[in-house]
Structure formats: C-alpha cells, structure tokens
C-alpha cells in the first residue's frame, strides 16, 4: 500500500468517473471519493500525504462538486487550500487553470473528453467508443509515469507516448502543463 499518495476524486455521479478511476485503481493509494467529509478532515488528509492527485471539474474558484443528495454544488477545493497544496507534489486532472493561476507547481491537465456530449461542446465529432477508448489509453499513459518525480519530465513522457491521430487524442494531449 502506498500511503504517501492521496487521490481526491469525489464521486458525484459524473460521466467518465470510471475512466478516471483507471488512473489509480488497484495502486493502494488513499482515496477521498466522498465529498461530504469535513474541510478539516480534507486538510488533515492532505497534510498526511506527500503526493496529491486531484481529479474533478474546476472553475477559476476551485473544484466544483455536485451533491447527489442536496442537489446543489459547492467548492470542495478552493483558494483556501492553496497554501497546504503548494507544499505537496500535485497531479491534477481538470484543474489546470485553477492551479496555474494560483502558481501551484505540478503536472496539470485540462479537461479530458470522456463522453460524446463533452466532445460536442468542443465541436469534436467522435463516437462514444472512440472517446472512451482514447480516454482510457490516456489514463494508462499517465498511470505509467506516476512514479516520475519531476513534473516537466512527466509531461515530456506523456507527450512522447500520446498518439495524435484523432481529434480526441489531439484535444486530450494539448491541455498538459508542468509548473
């Protein structure tokens, strides 16, 4: 079990949740999937871990979580968490712009297409099977470099391994930065 890694991936029933799980499933990482934990519990968990993998839907204000029971949304990760996160090794999917604007070092990836509906938002014509297949390949590539410590080296290895044959692959690949 690898207790130095914490995955923050709230299960809000979103499309593609299972695809993102492929990134960390079976690796023995500690996982926060329940967004109803208290902020103090979240902060304590972050403090206990060296590496934090954060997966979710972000705006400029932070990670938005949609409550299945309350039928509302709230910011699970926001700028009040920046100070504690700056002292960690961060890998984020969905949070590129949030972490970039807050100058949090790490590997940050924009949105990854996981459904045909998402693809239409970006004017990308692809089938559900093409999108899921591409997203799973992308998760596999990211998973293969999780042990690389340097964010720039991680990014370079991901870019090198990612095909760019389809519009979906091009979209998924273009949003990767290392700070």
Write a brief caption for the model:
The chain is built from eight helices and nine strands.
Number of helices: 8
Strand % is 15-25%
* Spatial shape: globular
Note the gap between the termini.
Answer: 28 Å
What attributes does this structure have?
8 helices, 3-stranded antiparallel beta sheet, 21% strand, 179 residues, alpha/beta, 6-stranded mixed beta sheet, single chain
Please provide a written account of the structure:
By secondary structure, the protein is an alpha/beta fold. It contains eight helices and nine strands. The protein has helices at 17-21, 39-48, 82-85, 96-101, 116-121, 128-144, 151-161, 167-174; strands at residues 5-8, 30-32, 51-55, 57-59, 62-66, 73-78, 89-93, 107-109, 176-178. The strands form two sheets. It has a six-stranded mixed beta sheet with strand order 2-1-3-7-8-9, with helices on both faces. It is globular. The mean pLDDT is 91.
SSE blueprint and pairings:
Blueprint: E1 5-8, H1 17-21, E2 30-32, H2 39-48, E3 51-55, E4 57-59, E5 62-66, E6 73-78, H3 82-85, E7 89-93, H4 96-101, E8 107-109, H5 116-121, H6 128-144, H7 151-161, H8 167-174, E9 176-178
Helix pairs in contact: 6-8
């Amino acid at each position: 079990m690898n207790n130095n890694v914490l995955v923050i991936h709230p299960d809000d029933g979103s499309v593609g949740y299972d695809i993102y799980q492929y990134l960390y499933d079976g690796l023995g990482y500690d996982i926060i999937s329940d967004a109803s934990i208290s902020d103090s519990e979240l902060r304590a968990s972050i403090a206990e871990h060296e590496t934090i993998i954060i997966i979710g839907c972000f705006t400029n204000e932070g990670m938005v979580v949609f409550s299945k029971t309350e039928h509302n949304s709230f910011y699970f990760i926001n700028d009040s968490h920046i100070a504690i996160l700056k002292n960690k090794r961060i890998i984020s999917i969905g949070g590129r712009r949030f972490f970039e604007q807050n100058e949090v070092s790490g590997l940050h990836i924009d949105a990854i297409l996981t459904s045909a509906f998402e693809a239409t938002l970006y004017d990308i014509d692809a089938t559900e099977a093409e999108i899921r297949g591409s997203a799973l390949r992308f998760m596999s590539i990211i998973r293969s470099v999780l042990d690389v410590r340097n964010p720039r080296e991680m990014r370079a290895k991901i870019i090198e391994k990612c095909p760019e044959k389809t519009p979906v692959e091009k979209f998924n690949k273009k949003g990767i930065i290392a700070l």
